[in-house]
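Figure 2 data, in text form.
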Amino acid sequence: MSDSTIVLITGANSGVGYATTEAIVSQPGFHVILACRDPAKGNQARAELLQKHPKGSLSVLQLDVEDDNSIAQAVTSVTNEFGRVDAFISNAGTTAVGTSGREKLQRTFSANVFGAMMVTEAFIPLLLQSKQPRLVQISSGLGSLGLASDLSSPYAASPWDEYRMSKAALNMMTIQMHKRLMGKNVRVFAFCPGLVRSRLRGESEEEVSAQGRAGDPMVPGRALLDIVAGRRDEEAGQFLSAASGVFPW
């Protein structure tokens, strides 16, 4: 394991997290830690992935980004087992389906901003134990102020106000982390996976597929593999898109 690149992905049992795990474990030289709120779902995902990629190296970690005790226990577990993290992909998030008003704001920001910040900060010491650490925040083009204010952009028309606000806040957090960590050799990225099949919008096929408009999550999964493999290091500190190069903040 000491020779493997250790990649930790939050929210790894479905959607973009699952696809990214699959893209990474299909290649030699990586070990992926599937960090999941529900370890049963994590273990099911691990079993499915190993059926498809029997040479893959995978482990499951219980981690709820909204629970400080869970975060602390996860850090201790990874410290004891691996001693470092080479790439940290902060992917867990929500649109707080079925809520509205203050509850929707609170739940959205709790996972997408507060949870993302607290779990990332907790794992930074383990990233600093890596020779080539990389940190990726899974954002969205919907959080780009530049795209939102450009009325000719397809990203301008979408509603989802609470989600957009949370991703804009996440982008600012990413910029701040980049400035703080660039002198410590940590390459920090924000990344938009685009509209892909995901339970982020709900559980029904219509919601998962965004009424048939959603693409294959393996596309951003492979793009994230390029990032953790160091093939996009020259773009550190930027807001990358799986489909369109670099987005404006």
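Caption note: The domain at 5-247 is CATH 3.40.50.720 (Rossmann fold).
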